[in-house]
Specification:
127 residues, 9-stranded antiparallel sheet, two-stranded antiparallel sheet, Fatty acid-binding protein, liver-type, transport, Fatty_acid-bd, cytoplasm
Length: 127
């Protein structure tokens, strides 16, 4: 299955505790927690471009599976990391956060980010 497409955030769990743990200010957490972000994924072989738009904030990451890339985090920091693919799962460890994005069927993506004991889960549906 291809990840390519546009997905809208359907639901999320533990957003506030996770965002506090990574250092986002309460004001930004409250402002952004109810916005239905749009994720656009372009997949061309092992090359990916992921664009996440949350209100006026746009985060763009481009990477090739298995090769080091500079990725932007949720806080706007840049860090080098390697994204791995295992079937319908993309996995990356970035600044202590383990992120797993799984295409669970043709229309649903589940992204789980784990920092210590906090698990932030986002479910998005293909538009």
């Amino acid at each position: 299955m291809s990840f390519s497409g546009k997905y809208q955030l359907e639901s999320q769990e533990n957003v506030e505790s996770f965002m506090k743990a990574i250092g986002l200010p309460d004001e930004l957490i409250q402002k952004g927690k109810d916005i239905k972000s749009i994720s656009e994924i372009e997949e061309d072989g092992d090359n990916f471009k992921v664009t996440v738009t949350t209100g006026s904030k746009v985060l763009v990451n481009t990477f090739k599976i298995g090769e080091e890339a500079e990725l932007e985090t949720l806080t706007g920091e840049k860090a080098k990391a390697v994204v791995q693919r295992d079937g319908n799962k993309l996995t990356v460890s970035l600044k202590g956060i383990l992120s797993v994005t799984e295409l669970v069927d043709g229309n649903t993506i589940v992204n789980t980010m784990t920092l210590g004991s906090i698990v932030y889960k986002r479910t998005s549906i293909r538009m």
